[in-house]
Amino acid sequence: MKRFFQIVALAFLFMTQGVIAQDFEAGLAAYNERDYATAASNWLPLAEQGHAQAQYNLGVMSERGIGQAQDFEQAVRWYAMAADQGRADAQSNLGALYAAGRGVTKDNARAVQLYMMSAEQGHKLGQYNLGVMYATGQGIARDDAESLKWLLRAAEQGEARAQNNAGVLYRDGRGTETNDVEAVSLFTAAAEQGYPNAQANLARMYIQGRGVALDVSVALAWYIKAAEQGHAASQMDLAVAYQQGLSGIAVSNAAAFHWFGRAARNGIPPAQFELGLMYAKGEPVEMNNLKAHMWWNIANYNGYERAAGNLEIVVKRMSADEIAQAQAMAQTCFSSRYQDC
After folding, report:
1. Which of 109, 124, 186, 248 satisfies CB 3.0 to 4.6 Å to 139 for a cystine?
2. pTM of the entire structure?
3. Structural Rg of the chain based on CA atoms
4. Per-residue pLDDT tens digits for 274-287
5. What is the DSSP letter of 50?
6. What one-character DSSP code corresponds to residue 229?
């Protein structure tokens, strides 16, 4: 009789597991079809019963506002449940919320604990985040050697940000001896994945001939890739290079204007100043005192001291109505976050 009840219990267990698996897969199918309400309704009962993957998935939906209003507190709740069951991805995501103070009181020490648990399970984002915390001394004593160790583990798994950050440590000799060749290798791995910070760092290595043969054309190609993705520092570097003909690059006022414009709209005050100067001089664009005033006004507001003196000069060439119009243009530019300028 005892044997009979054991068999019945096992049969019931397998049936229950089968139903749970079916419900989870039904939720996953609905999610992939962007039917988020159905996905959540399938996963919610499972999560409440302790299904770690369902808990993690609901945490992601809450954190990102997928199919519902963004709710960081709810994300913390679900991630914590999944993290307690040992899910490395939930531990990493929960750590990020503690580090940012989203849905929970900011606590870098707790973030480090969670990243460590995730990293030790081999989770690349946990490893990357832990490496960042060691590099910046947040929640734990700064230790560049430990930072490099964890960044390299994440880099080996293809995490582009970790590859870039590890490259910076090799380039700068932090936590290890300076190794430009290794830095170039890591920057290249991340750059080829499309990570703009790495593309910019790789461009600088080529233009300086560090760890690789000096090659201006290759440097330009990587700068442009980064700049096209909105990397403001690369946009500024390109603009200055074209303006001044640095490193053998042919002078091109048109190209300089283009990249100063892109950098200015990314909020870079020196680029905003240079753009104003080009409009004031009428080179390589038509002279426009309104736009010169607008960009210098913006640069001045953003703390670029040289702009104040130029503003005093350009207002002498403008009527009161023109000054008012230029000020209104600057306000519109600000309110649109530099997109309507």
Report:
1. 109
2. 0.88
3. 27
4. 999 999 999 999 99
5. T
6. T
